[in-house]
Prior knowledge:
By secondary structure, the protein is α+β, with helices and mostly antiparallel strands. It contains 5 helices and 7 strands. The chain has a 7-stranded antiparallel β-sheet, sandwiched between helices. The termini are far apart. The mean pLDDT is 83. This is Nitroreductase family deazaflavin-dependent oxidoreductase. Pfam families: F420H2_quin_red.
Amino acid sequence: MGVDITAALRRAGRTRWFARLGRAVSRIDKRIQKATDGRWSVLGRPTLPHLILTTTGRRSGEPRDAALLYARDGERWVVIGSNWGQQHHPAWSGNLLADPHAAVTVGGRRVEVVAHLADDDERARLLGTLRAIWPGYDDYDARTVRELRVFVLTPAVPAG
Length: 160
């Protein structure tokens, strides 16, 4: 009987050591995912939904990439600024607040998006979906005093 890698990752993702490891390898992972159009990550073939979010740096004005897990909400992508449970928000979330125009790359396909911070009702509805994908978000939330930002990324040009 084979090991369910996704289930093992979801269990490990709830631990502090995994969060430390994730922070340490995230730059390498982002490069691997970008170079392979999302077909590979540091853990091999991805089994969880992931995307590359490209924002505009709020200070530099330069493109900034972040490899993130996501949930779907119809045609929209939903991401959470967990930052592995650290006390500060991830840079990409501040970039989205400063300029909501961004792009997501999923499976090698790039889509221009406009982001908005989920309001309380929307956030409550979407958190369950995000946590089903990555249960570690509960643990990250418990480690920090800040509210984890949930963003909804809507295609700039509707599909159709």
